[in-house]
Every structure is written in structure tokens, then in C-alpha cells.
Inverse folding.
């Protein structure tokens, strides 16, 4: 049975099903369409499915032209999960957020498994790509599959391969980013390697699904901890009257032993704000208190409030209260040059400022209208920047440093700028670094 599936995958005759057509699933589906005869993208959101089948991309860094090419090569989208039975490989790319207690929320994974269970059959491989804690694939997915009478490693094959998408990064693509793969059994691993080696340039096999799950967490916790360090350094440097960006630039001249990380108003994206808490939650099961990781999380989580305090102090110096002041936030996406707002600290800034009585608007060339997200529903549209518009605000907060902003115009016409990204290297009385 394993040999039959391996043959289909290696000869590119397999039908690939990808569940979840978001920032991870859609580019992965398009990549598989380059190699395999049929790719089905599944999603519960009918608007997404309709847009894909019409060749209309809803993700900014994916062009509609490239989506049309993928459709011509065999990509189709569907809300009909009975078509899972047609697929030889099913790749799960669904969200794994935190609940209000900052504990793992695997409800999307579980509901997806429930949806596809009636249509699973022998000679299929199931791969989970969603970020999760070590043990999820073995402890949660495997029993659910074997409850159907499908023995993992014999009838059906189960692997974990963490997504490594970086929206807006033109240097590394789905094809060129190495793919870590772990299997529940040796047979599962071999099938997983065959699944991915036809779509990516390099597959990195590891000894187990738990190892692959831990690898994903380490990658993003590494970033979270170092960002937490530099954010704390920023607070200390600010108290001492030292420019942290000048310090980082100077330290970065050291040709060894130092990697530059840069502070900001907090951390965003689906992975970095979430992954540390997945590991800390699981570590408690083993009696381990991950103090270092949790401290970084506390520092990063506190940054939006620290920025709001800097806004209040800056307004106070201009004899204005934050309550009633008109404030413009520049950038709502979690990082520059993308439309991705998942866990964006700008959303927290907006919420905190509104609760303090400020009259807040935003400008973001990549986000025309703020959609409803899990925590927030602001119903705001992006403001077009002009000299007159900028001058009408009591303060402008640079939260996301998009390349398309006219920084010279912003500096010239804003009454007060609070720069959370260190874009303005040379301060003036109207620019406050936060």
C-alpha cells in the first residue's frame, strides 16, 4: 500500500488536497499545481472558494495573474469536503490561535478532522502544517484516524511538516524554503518525503512528528525571545536617553557573535506571538516552567501599552491630553509591505488609544478597510495622506514602516510623530522615538 502511494507521488500522478486557503494554504496549493495533475483547495468560506475559481486573489502579495496560471494547470477550489475521497494527499493548513487564557486552541484542527473523517480511505497521506505543541500529531490526530479502522503506517500515513511561509518576502518562496518533515512511522516519513520533495527544493527529514513540531516552535521562539530582549533594551535605553537604533547599528558592525534584531510596538503575525505559549503550556505537563520564554512574551505583550504611554507623554509636552486628541496610526499590518494583520500590534494600539478617549484613525496603503477579526471590529477605512490631512492630527504614530509612505511629507506636515520603528534616524522636536 505504501509503495502504491509512493509511486503516485513520485510520478506526480497523485491528487493533492489542501485544507485552508489562507496565507499558507493558497500559495502551497499554487505551488503543487506546478507539479501535480490535480490540486483541490478546500475552504469553508465560500467567498474565498469563489474568488479562487474566478482567478481573483484576495491576498495582496499573490497576484491574480499567477492564480489564473495555477487554475490553468489544474488547481480548483471547493467547499465540498466529500472530494477528500478523491485526494491521495491531504495537507491541513488551518489556524491554531490561542484562547483568552493564552492556551492552545486546536478547535480548527479538530473540526477539520471531523469534516474529512467520513471521506478518508486507505492509501492516503495526511499532513498537518499548522503550528502546534509537540505531541499533537501523535496524541490527537493519530487516534482520530485509527478510530476509523485505518492503521497509521499501514493503511493511512500521517506526517507533520511545519509551514514556513513569510508573506511579502520575495527572496524566499514556498519552493525555495527547506521543508522539515516528521512521520509517525518510518513508512509515514518516506511517504511524507515523497509528498514534499516534488514541490520544494529541499526536504529535511527528522526522526518524529514531535521533533518537527518542536522545530517549528524553536524557530519562532528564537525570534520572540530576541525581539523581547531588544524591546526591553529599548525601554532601558529610552530611560537613559540613548538611541537604541544607533546602538543596534553600532553593534551590528561586529562580524561575529551578534545578530541584529529591531524593536517595535509589539510582535505580530500568526506565529511569533503565539508559538511561545504553545510550548509553555505543553511544558507544564512535564513539570517544566519556561521562565525565559514567558518573560520574553510578557515584554513583547507589554509594548503596545508602553507606546501608548509614550504617546500620552508626547502629547502632554505639547499641553494636550490624550483624551480628545486626534491621532493617526500609520500602518495596520503586522509588518511592512503586506496586508496581513494577524495579531498585529497596531490593532492593540488602536484599541488602547480608543479606550483612553482618543479620536483615532489609520492610514495603510495595504489595508483599505479594517475587517472584523477575532478580538476587534473597528469599522474604519484607511485615510489618504496629504499635507492637510497630516496637519489635522495632534499626533501621528508610525506603527508599521511601509516603503510606500512618503516619510518626508509625513515629517514636514505632522504636528507630532511618535516613531515606533526607528525610521527617523535624526530626531527633531516633532519626532519622538518610542
Amino acid at each position: 500500500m505504501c509503495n502504491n502511494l509512493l509511486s503516485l507521488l513520485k510520478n506526480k500522478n497523485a491528487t493533492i488536497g489542501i485544507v485552508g486557503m489562507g496565507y499558507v494554504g493558497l500559495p502551497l496549493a499554487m505551488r503543487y499545481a506546478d507539479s501535480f495533475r490535480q490540486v483541490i483547495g478546500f475552504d469553508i468560506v465560500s467567498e474565498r472558494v469563489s474568488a479562487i475559481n474566478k482567478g481573483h486573489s484576495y491576498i495582496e502579495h499573490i497576484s491574480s495573474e499567477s492564480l489564473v496560471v495555477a487554475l490553468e494547470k489544474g488547481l480548483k477550489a471547493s467547499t465540498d469536503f466529500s472530494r477528500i475521497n478523491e485526494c491521495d494527499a491531504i495537507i491541513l493548513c488551518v489556524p491554531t490561535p490561542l484562547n483568552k487564557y493564552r492556551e492552545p486552541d486546536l478547535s480548527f484542527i479538530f473540526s477539520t478532522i471531523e469534516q474529512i473523517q467520513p471521506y478518508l480511505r486507505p492509501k492516503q497521506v495526511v499532513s498537518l502544517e499548522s503550528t502546534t505543541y509537540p505531541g499533537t500529531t501523535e496524541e490527537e490526530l493519530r487516534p482520530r484516524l485509527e478510530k476509523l479502522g485505518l492503521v497509521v503506517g499501514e493503511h493511512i500515513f500521517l506526517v507533520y511538516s511545519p509551514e514556513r511561509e513569510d508573506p511579502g518576502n520575495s527572496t524566499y518562496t514556498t519552493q525555495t524554503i527547506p521543508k522539515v518533515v516528521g512521520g509517525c512511522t518510518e513508512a509515514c516519513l518516506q511517504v511524507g518525503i515523497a509528498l514534499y520533495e516534488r514541490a520544494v527544493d529541499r526536504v529535511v527529514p527528522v526522526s518524529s512528528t514531535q521533533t518537527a513540531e518542536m522545530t517549528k516552535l524553536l524557530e519562532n521562539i528564537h525570534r520572540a525571545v530576541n525581539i523581547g530582549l531588544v524591546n526591553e533594551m529599548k525601554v532601558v535605553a529610552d530611560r537613559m536617553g540613548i538611541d537604541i537604533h544607533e546602538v543596534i547599528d553600532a553593534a551590528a558592525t561586529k562580524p561575529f557573535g551578534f545578530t541584529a534584531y529591531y524593536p517595535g510596538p509589539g510582535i505580530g503575525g500568526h506565529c511569533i506571538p503565539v508559538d511561545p505559549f504553545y510550548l509553555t503550556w505543553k511544558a507544564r505537563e512535564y513539570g517544566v516552567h519556561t521562565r525565559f520564554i514567558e518573560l520574553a512574551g510578557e515584554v513583547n505583550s507589554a509594548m503596545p501599552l508602553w507606546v501608548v504611554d509614550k504617546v500620552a507623554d508626547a502629547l502632554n509636552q505639547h499641553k494636550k491630553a490624550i483624551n480628545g486628541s486626534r491621532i493617526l496610526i500609520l500602518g495596520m499590518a503586522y509588518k511592512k509591505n503586506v496586508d496581513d494583520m494577524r495579531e498585529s500590534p497596531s490593532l492593540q494600539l488602536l484599541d488602547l488609544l480608543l479606550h483612553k478617549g482618543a479620536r483615532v484613525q489609520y492610514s495603510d496603503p495595504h489595508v483599505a478597510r479594517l475587517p472584523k477579526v477575532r478580538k476587534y471590529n473597528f469599522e474604519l477605512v484607511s485615510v489618504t495622506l496629504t499635507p492637510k490631512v497630516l496637519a489635522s492630527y495632534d499626533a501621528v504614530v508610525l506603527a508599521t514602516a511601509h516603503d510606500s509612505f512618503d516619510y518626508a511629507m509625513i515629517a514636514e506636515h505632522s504636528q507630532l510623530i511618535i516613531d515606533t520603528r526607528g525610521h527617523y534616524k535624526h530626531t527633531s522636536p516633532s519626532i519622538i522615538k518610542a
